[in-house]
Amino acid sequence: MDTRANKPRVTLLHYLVNEAEKKNRDAIAFVEKLDSDLNFLSRFERLLVICYKRK
C-alpha cells in the first residue's frame, strides 16, 4: 500500500485537517482553543515554578 501524496509536501496530516475543516469546523475551533488554553497553562506553570523558587 502506497501512502505518498500526489502533491509535493502534502502529508496525511494535511489531508486529515482539510477533511475535518470541510466536515466539522467546530471541531477545528475546539482544537485551536484547547491549544491556546494549554499554551497559557504552560506559561502559568512556569510562573508558578519561578514564584515557588523565590520562597
Automatic annotation (TrEMBL):
Name of protein = FH2 domain-containing protein
Q: Which organism is it from?
A: Dreissena polymorpha
